[in-house]
Amino acid sequence: MLLTSACTAPPQAPPGPWRNLGPRSRELLARAGVHTHEELVREDALELYVRLKALDARVSLNMLYALVGAQEGLDWREVQRERRTELLLRLEDLGHAPR
């Protein structure tokens, strides 16, 4: 039984300063001028998301969730589940609501 429950558990994002952000995301962040985790933490996640979206139109809302998660040490799926509405409303306030 233990094996079954372990196999059905959702995969966890690896801990660390770049949690949720893979090589391509980090490359895009570098293009936006964010090279260290300290720089990432100082950024407003929504404003950074808007800058990344301007650099690459393929950037999805998952990047926003990943940025918030990386800043707060959370899995991006938890951010999506718990804060999606709040973040979408803030994007709308900034004039960047998704279509």
Distance between the termini: 45 Å
- The global form is globular
| Rg result | 15 Å
Low-confidence stretches: 1-14
**Secondary-structure class:** mainly alpha
Query: Biggest sheet, open or closed, and with what strands and sense?
Result: none
Question: What helical percentage do the residues reach?
Answer: 55-70%
Instruction: Give the strand tally.
Output: 0
Mean pLDDT: 87
Provide a count of the helices: 6
- Strand % is under 5%
Task: Walk me through what this model shows.
The N and C termini lie far apart (45 Å). The protein has 99 residues and is mostly helical. It has helices spanning 2-8, 23-31, 37-42, 45-55, 61-72, 76-93. It is built from six helices and no strands. Helix 4 crosses helix 5 (61-72) and helix 5 (61-72) crosses helix 6. Helices cover 64% and strands 0% of the residues.
